[in-house]
Structures are given as structure tokens and as C-alpha cells.
């Protein structure tokens, strides 16, 4: 599956909330560990929803992780061990520096697997993920199930009123929706304001 370590590459796992991005990332992480390809596992300090020291999927799968405030701290961690892969969850919270760092790591020969949202709650391009999609060798775009119509969902609809782009949340704040139901929901919110 991953016969690319001498060359390096970037792989992106994206999709809306509740689509299983962290679950898929953890599945790939288990594959790397089984093959004895030591991964460096990272998540942003900002995301403390389920654990401050682990990646946790909504199904309850967990893995210890390094917590970084700034993605450039990855270079310090690489000095301490011989890693073959860098695995990053909730990458949309790292900001635009992630694009240059991921590109550099791949150029150095690392497999860089990144999971994160590609759209914000208004369906706008979100954080570094859209730019990473342009330079990635492999992209997996997951879908959830729309809670309104039960069709394929590609968006994260925010149920509460807040203009803050980086708002941590779970089922009380967000739900997966298809494009049509997302647009209906946004129109409904606008009508409630007026």
C-alpha cells in the first residue's frame, strides 16, 4: 500500500464532521505500526474535545499523540527518533504554515498523512486543507449521512448561532448535512434572525 518512503508523499483524509476522518486516520496508523513503520502522531493543542493527549474517534478508538501549539514544532520531535511517517489529526486547526511544513516533510522522504475539515460551517474553504489537497499525492474524501434527508452528507452544519470560525463542538453544535439541506438550514437561520 505504501511503497513510497524514499520519495515521500502527502495523503489527505477529509470530509465533513461525523464522516469518520479520525477513524480512518487511526486505521492507517494501525497499518503503519503493524508494518513497523514508526509514525510520529500529532494533533493541535486547540482540540481538547475528547482528550488532551490522545486522538479519539467518535467510535472510541484512541491513540497517544504529541500535542503541538505550532506545527513547526514537529522538527524538534523528529530529532528524537527515526520516524517513517507523520500522522496529523484535526489539521485544519494548524493554520497555513502546515502547507509548507507538510510539503517539506514529504520532500525529506516522510509519508505525511493528514486528516481535517476542508470546509467550515458555511461551506467555505477551511484552513490549510484546501491548499494541501492541491499538492497531495493521495486524497480520500469521506462523506457522512445527512441527518435531515439521510442522503450523502458533505457539509458540517452549525446548529447554534456563532460567527466564530474555530468553534469546537460535537452533536449539540453541529450535524452532517447534504448541500441541499445545509442551504435550507442556513436560509432558515437567516429568516429567524429577521
Notable characteristics:
six-stranded parallel beta sheet, two-stranded antiparallel sheet, 194 residues, alpha/beta, disordered N terminus, elongated
Would you kindly provide a written description of the structure presented here, covering whatever features stand out?
The chain has 194 residues and is an alpha/beta fold. It has helices at residues 21-34, 74-78, 97-107, 129-135, 179-193, and strands at residues 9-14, 39-44, 54-56, 62-64, 66-68, 85-88, 111-116, 138-141, 144-145, 152-153, 155-158, 174-177. The strands form four sheets. The chain has a six-stranded parallel β-sheet, sandwiched between helices. It has a two-stranded antiparallel ribbon with strand order 3-4. It has a two-stranded antiparallel ribbon with strand order 9-10. A hairpin with a 5-residue loop joins strand 3 and strand 4. Helix 3 runs parallel beside helix 4 (129-135). The longest helix is centred in the last third of the chain and has 15 residues, at 179-193.
